[in-house]
Design a protein that fits this description.
331 residues, alpha/beta, seven-stranded mixed sheet, 11 strands
């Protein structure tokens, strides 16, 4: 029978992570399309050795810029044959239980363009020997507030408390439209590409939030993926004040999104402003945020002090077990 979902894996070097990824994320019931924009040949060698019928490897021109990356992604999603598609990074992990939940949710909701669950973060605590060990998984901020919303209503929510939809499971047809639009608009800032992807998703359909974790992000990669070229700390939102090219890109994409959402450019920018205000605000130093910061640190420190670490399989087992408990308790 025809497979339902293709995982698209964009690569830019970092073969160390690709090796680990291949050990944990390949299942015969799914298709895989590897879009390799590496400078070196190590990744290609790994896939030549693999030789699996459901894994298609494609070498693309080197990812020298975000423009190259967008072109690569547009072409890759143009080649996907399955009804559903999803983007992965080679330092992260797929939780297949949640993937199944996302697919079922999309089958039940024909108006939805994408579905996702809570995403967890983990820290790698050992570099070698392979397979590496990881600390306690932590639930990351999630997009549940966007559930079922579409159009301007959804965009207002997105700008008020931004959450990416980058790792959601998409209907391929809608995803192709998104990438084609991003390419045509010529957006070259990596963060603007990510926001535009979410904006267009919410214009073309709605997002369904499922309670099951489907994706686990590595929080402390040694080197970052193409999408994370800009250092995490650098607040790209500040560029709105002084970088003309950045500002022009924001206006260009906003004109397009406003048309799709059926509102005026002014209406859209009034709401989009909230995203920039939040991005440029000083870090919240409330009692709550300090306590949360401490809890998060304890969460990382305690396992290290006790030398508690997990294989990725155990970490996923922990997340799924905890998910089942939360479900029973209704939390």
């Amino acid at each position: 029978s025809m497979k339902r979902l293709t995982f698209v894996l964009p690569l830019k070097d970092r073969p160390y992570y690709t090796k680990i990824w291949l050990q944990h994320n390949i299942r015969s019931e799914y298709e895989y399309l590897v879009a390799d924009g590496s400078a070196g040949d190590e990744n290609e060698a790994l896939f030549r050795e693999l030789g699996l019928p459901n894994v298609t490897y494609k070498r693309f021109p080197q990812d020298a810029s975000i423009g190259h990356f967008v072109e690569k992604m547009t072409q890759a999603f143009g080649q996907v044959q399955t009804e559903y598609a999803m983007t992965c990074d080679n330092d992260d992990f797929i939780n297949f239980r949640g993937i199944q939940t996302c697919l079922d949710a999309l089958e039940r909701n024909p108006d939805a363009i994408c579905a996702g669950g809570p995403i967890y973060g983990i820290q790698q605590v050992s570099a070698s020997p392979l397979p590496p060990r990881y600390g306690m998984p932590l639930r990351l901020p999630e997009a549940s507030a966007l559930h079922g919303k579409t159009g301007f209503d959804a965009l207002t929510q997105l700008f008020g408390s931004y959450q990416y939809l980058w790792y959601s499971v998409f209907r391929t047809e809608g995803y192709r439209r998104i990438w084609t639009d991003i390419r045509q608009l010529g957006i070259s800032n990596v963060y603007l590409v990510e926001i535009l992807q979410a904006e267009l998703a919410l214009c073309f359909g709605n997002y369904i939030h499922v309670p099951t974790n489907h994706y686990i992000r590595l929080e402390n990669p040694v080197t970052s993926s193409a999408r994370e070229l800009a250092p995490r700390e650098e607040r790209h939102t500040r560029k709105i004040h002084f970088d003309d090219d950045y500002r022009n890109q924001v206006i260009r994409m906003s004109e397009h999104v406003a048309r799709k959402a059926g509102v005026s450019l002014d209406q859209l920018l009034d709401e989009f402003t909230n995203y920039f205000i939040a991005g440029n605000a000083p870090p919240r130093d409330s009692f709550g945020s300090r306590m949360l910061g401490r809890l998060v640190r304890l969460h990382e420190i305690i396992p290290r002090r006790l030398h508690i670490s997990f294989s990725i399989e155990s970490a996923i087992g922990f997340i799924n077990g905890w998910g089942t408990i939360r479900g029973r308790l209704g939390i």
